[in-house]
Amino acid sequence: MTTPEDAIRARRKLTNKLIAAHDAARLRPFLAKDVKLIAGDGSLILGGDAVVQAFADQFRDPEFSTYVRTTTEVQLDAEVARAAENGTWLAHWGPSQMSGTYLAVWQKVTGQWVLESELYLTLT
């Protein structure tokens, strides 16, 4: 049986693959309807549809390549209903790279882990 930690790590890897494929629409099932995302520049994106649209907009930029998020740790709450994932991220955008750290909150909804919120900090 898959542990919750392994399930979250697997879902993160799959979102990385979808971003690398520039497939914004397929990211939607990974997001809570009311997901909150604070991007690396501090801007706030509210709602799953808005997050998907933000990815779609980036994917249309010919300079954008991908984001890779690498999980460092997953911590579960006592009820195994929510989890905190932290790690590092790396973006390839044209000849430039950006990187930093992130914290994601996952919640279990009808047996599936979805993103409740994400906070990204650009460090380089």
Notable features of this structure?
alpha+beta; Nuclear Transport Factor 2, Chain: A; 6-stranded mixed sheet; 2 helices; globular
Polypeptide structure, described:
- With 124 residues, the protein is of the alpha+beta class.
- It has one domain: Nuclear Transport Factor 2, Chain: A.
- The chain contains two helices and six strands, in the order αββαββββ.
- It has a six-stranded mixed sheet, covered by helices on one side.
- Strand 4 (82-93) and strand 5 form a beta hairpin.
- The longest helix has 17 residues, at 4-20.
- The model has no long low-confidence stretch (mean pLDDT 96).
Top-tier CATH class:
Alpha Beta
Taken as a percent bin, the fraction of beta residues is over 45%
User: Percentage of helical residues?
Assistant: 10-25%
Number of domains: 1
Strands of the widest sheet, in order across it, are 2-1-6-5-4-3
